[in-house]
Specification:
The chain is of the alpha/beta class and 281 residues long. The chain has 2 domains: 2-20 and 65-146, no CATH class; 149-274, no CATH class. It is 39% helix and 25% strand. The chain contains 8 helices and 10 strands. It has helices at residues 6-22, 26-38, 42-61, 89-103, 148-151, 164-179, 197-207, 219-232, and strands at 2-5, 71-79, 82-85, 128-134, 139-146, 155-159, 187-195, 248-258, 263-270, 277-280. The chain has a 4-stranded mixed sheet. α1 runs parallel beside α4. The protein is globular and about 55 Å long. The two termini are 14 Å apart.
Amino acid sequence: MRTISASEITKAVAKAAIQANYYLGEDIFGALRQGRTTEESPLGREVLGQLIDNACIARDQDMPICQDTGLAVVFMEIGQDVHIADGSLEAAVDAGVAKGYTEGYLRKSAVDDPVFVRKNTGDNTPAILHVSIVPGDKIKIVLAPKGFGSENMSALKMFPPAAGVAGIKKFALDTVDAAGSNPCPPIVIGMGIGGTMEKAALLAKKALIRPISVRNANPDYAKLEEEILSLVNKTGVGPQGLGGTVTALAVNIEYYPTHIAGMPVAININCHATRHAEIEI
């Protein structure tokens, strides 16, 4: 049994919050550069160049990529041989979010009541925390800030099995069309297929932390990722919704067994930055 103090978790979460908001992932950098060479619209190429320049400035000057630094979505894989001492897990994560968002000068966007008062919590807590228990004696933390220009464009549909691949493709295209410029394209599309309503949504969110250079291990789903990406890039939405052939950088699909009578499908859209940072302790 390995003991990890709650304070170590707090420090790691704070560090991840800053890294995720300051430094664009290399997979995204590469996709933006590639998109600039393949984009058919001159305006689209100019926009992609500006996005690359913006990310370089943020990295070089240690500042946020975007003014909307989002809600802190935290995925944690906790080894079953880990004992967390000197505090609770949730309190440690929230303390890390508060520390990172304060010390990193990141905009605090969380409100305590979603309907009536909507008072800002002042430190961007609580985090949206997803925990899984895995073999081993380590803790892996992935922090993925989620801005709501893209989050608001996400969708969920409970399909009958007969809808099949055609229904999934149409749902993806309809969702992208409805989103338009709101999620700051070129976007990354996370899709969750299967499970139950809430499982599909979680799968879609989790799909967004997979590097966009990595396709699904199942060849059928890998093929579907590529097919949907091709269709989305033919919609003409283009970079920042100004028209073009690079509407999305990638489609990542995660799937799970489901009931014989259903086929839940969730789509979680992310902006071009698709921010996340990973730390292991």
